[in-house]
Amino acid sequence: MKSPISLLLSAGAALCVIIAAASPALSAPAQLHVQGNQLLDSTGHPVRLRGVNCASMEWSTNGEGHILKTVEVAVRDWHANIIRLPLSQDRWFGKAPDQRDGGASYRALVRRIVDLVSSNNAYIILDLHWSDMGHWGRDIGQHRLPDSNSIVFWQHLAPAYANNPAVLFDLYNEPNHVTWDEWYKGGRLTETDRKSGDTVTYDAVGLPELFRTIRATGAKNVVLAGGINWAFEVGGILRGRELSDPQGYGVVYAVHPYPHRYDHLGLETIPEWSARLQAFADRLPLIVTEFGSLEKSWPFPQSWHTNDEGWNRETLRTLEAHHWNWVAWDMHPYAEPCLITGWDYTPTPSFGVWVKQALEKNQE
């Protein structure tokens, strides 16, 4: 039989565990919030976020064994003050074919990554990158819009990181081949299963529904919402689709400029897309959460007289000139456009070198 003292100690230990599980890491950056078209820190000053994406958790349960080191290098050696971490709703719940633990180890690894970033006074975007067309474990990957399982994902993840000042939520990566009405309201969509070749029709969910799902959990975290056309087009949000947020810390709209020919927009030069995005940023807060050039996939017109390095350097200069927050893609040697050449984290000469140099400004 335990003594009253031992019982008291046991109760105290249990309480500490509960508090630790529910609270952010002891070391954490300042709480961010949106005011007008600005993202501000807790003192009311505009924040400058510059960072990198760290891919692999969308396709790998253990981040290929490199993810913790990658994030550590990004925040400590490259001085990124924000990390974007792509996630899979299926892996979160252990629905991928290689998982046998219901997602427990995956969720624990995400927790370790969040704590690592927070303890280095940086921010992390938890990004719903891969979904499944409403069928757990089927064709896990990038799809046109989120689905009913995406709601379940945010119902589970958001409370785990609710009101942690280091954590931002990215509703859904790169909505594509959809209209603005579908982006806003959802609807019946049809895609082809990339493994079986079968045609799959599913009930897609609009991004506002995911946003409402997060707020219903009590999580006030800053939320990111990407536009249509692979998150390159955000103008439709200005036509009555802004996400109202009286209960939380606000919404920032995410864009992904790449040198790619987009539906309805064509192949825009950097001055063209930056002018278009500035018109949006004059009214609502904007963050660039992916960018980079891969000319072998998206060849430049000869009239541009540029290459990958030229496009990347001009884009970085443009982002800085407009005072936009940005996160480069990607801190992985195979997730192109790549910032590193291998797992020794040597920066690529056409992209990584220049991103690393730009990140030095975070120390100023």
UniProtKB/TrEMBL annotation:
Glycoside hydrolase family domain residues: 40-333
Record's keyword annotation contains Phosphoprotein: no
InterPro entries noted in UniProt: GH (IPR017853), Glyco_hydro_5 (IPR001547), Glyco_hydro_5_CS (IPR018087)
Short name of any one Pfam family annotated for the protein: Cellulase
SUPFAM superfamilies noted in UniProt: (Trans)glycosidases
Record-annotated membrane-spanning stretches: none
Keywords: Glycosidase, Hydrolase
PROSITE patterns the record matches: GLYCOSYL_HYDROL_F5
Protein name: Endoglucanase Z
Organism phylogeny: unclassified sequences, metagenomes, ecological metagenomes
